[in-house]
Amino acid sequence: MPDRFLVEELGRFSADSRWEHVSESARSLLRRNVLDSVGCAIAALDGELPTTLREHASEVGGNPVCTLIGGGRTSMDQAALISSVQVRYVDLLDTYLTPGGLCHPADNFGALLAVAEASDVGGRDFLLALALAYELQARFSAQVPVMAKGLNHALQLAMSVAAGSAKLWGLDAGLTAHAISIAAADNVSLAAVHSEPVSQWKGVSPGITAQRAVYTTGLASRGVTGPKGLFEGPNGLFRLFDQTVDFRLSDPSLDVVEQTHLKKYCALIHGQPVIEAVLKLARFYDIAAGEIARVDLEVFQTAFDIAGGGSFGDKDDPGTKEQADYNLRYLAAVALLDRQVGPEQLSEERIQRRDTQQLLGRVHVRADDALTEGYPATTPVRVHITLRDGRRRSREQIDFEGAPGRAMSWDQVVRKFHWLAEPYADEELRGQIVACVAALEVKPVTSLTRLLGKVSRQPRRARQRSPF
Length: 468
Description:
- The protein has 20 helices and 8 strands.
- It is α+β, with helices and mostly antiparallel strands.
- The protein folds into 2 domains: 6-259, 2-methylcitrate dehydratase PrpD, CATH 1.10.4100; 269-400, CATH 3.30.1330.120.
- The chain has a 4-stranded mixed sheet. Strands 1-2 form a two-stranded antiparallel sheet.
- It starts with 5 loop residues before the first helix and ends in a 16-residue tail after the last helix.
C-alpha cells in the first residue's frame, strides 16, 4: 500500500490552494467566464428542460437556502442541479479540449454558486473554489482520454465539484480527500449520452453529477469516509483506464482558465470553426441558400466522430434540439439559411422546417488526417460551397474566435451576455449584473445571486440578432 494515496494528495492540494495561486490574468478570465456562464443560464430560463427541473424541484422540496436564477428559492442540491442544467442548455458554455475528449469547466459554476450562497462566502472565496475546480477537472482531462474510453466526461466533474465545495466549506485535506473519492466512485457514466439518438440526458447528466458531488461532500464533512484507493487501489481508476494519472501537484498554479475556449454559436465546440467558416463565406460572397448545390465539410477526426456521422452515430435526420446542436450538417445548413446560430436556431420548429432539412441533405462531412494532426492544439477545418452554376467557394481555418489563441475579450463577452439576457432582463438590471461580476472579488456572492433572482423567468422582449 502507498504511504499516501493519490486522492489524499489531491485533498492536500485543494486545502492548500490560495488566491495567490491564481495569476492576475487568470483572475480576469475567471470573471469573464463567470459572466459567460451567467448569460448562458439566463438564456435558458424558459427552455423545456430547465422548466421541467423547476417543476420537479418544487415537488421534492428541501430547505430553501439558495436563490434560483430567474427567481424563487430551493435547496442547495436542487439549485446546483437546476443552475448547472441552465448553463448547459443553449450550448454556449466554455470548453477545455484534450486529445481524448474534452470537458466543460463551466459545469462547475452552478453547483459552486449554490454552495457559495448557502455558505454566505465572499466573491473571492467563490472565485478561488471555481479556479480550483477548473484546474483539477482540466488536469485529469488532459491525462485521461475519458470519452475515447467510452465514458462521459462527467467523471472528472465529480472530483472538481467535490474539491470546490470542500474549499468553500473550509474542509481540511483529509475530509476533502474523502469528498473527492465518494463523489468520483459513483459517477462513472457512459459516453452513450453523447451518441445518437442524442437525448435530453446529455444536458442533465453533468448537472446530476454536480448535484451529487455537492450532496456527498456534505456527507464527507460529517465524517462519512470514501475509498482511498480511488486511483491506485485494486479496482481503482488506474485499472479502469490502464494508466496512471499525473495531476502535477507540485505546481500550485490555478491558471487553466487561460486555456478555455468560449463559444459564439449555439453548438458543440467542434462546430464553432465550421459555423464561423460557413458564415464568413456566405457573407463575403453573399451566397443565397437557393444557389447552393453542395457543401463539403472537412474536419478533424473527433469532430467527425461526434458530430459528423462517425462513431457516435449518423446525422441524417435531426429532429430535436439535442440532436441539432451535435450535428455539423444541420449547423452548416441553418447558418447558411439564417446567417446566425443562436437559441432560436435550436427550436424544434426551426430544426424541422423543410428548408433546413432539404439543405442539410446537400451537406457532406468527412474526416481529414492532416486536419486531425492539428487537434486539439488547433481546431482546423475546410469548407467548400459549390454553387449551382459550378463556382466553388472555399475557406480553411485553424481555429475560431473564442479559442485561446483568439480569445474573446471581456467586452465581447459583455456583448454576448446582453444578447443572451436581453429578453429576460431590462438594460438596468443587465448592467448591474455585469458590474457585479466585474467586481466580484470584493463583493459577497449574495450580491450576485440577489440580482440573478430578479431576472424574469419568461421573455418580455424579443432577442436582437447575434452580435457575432
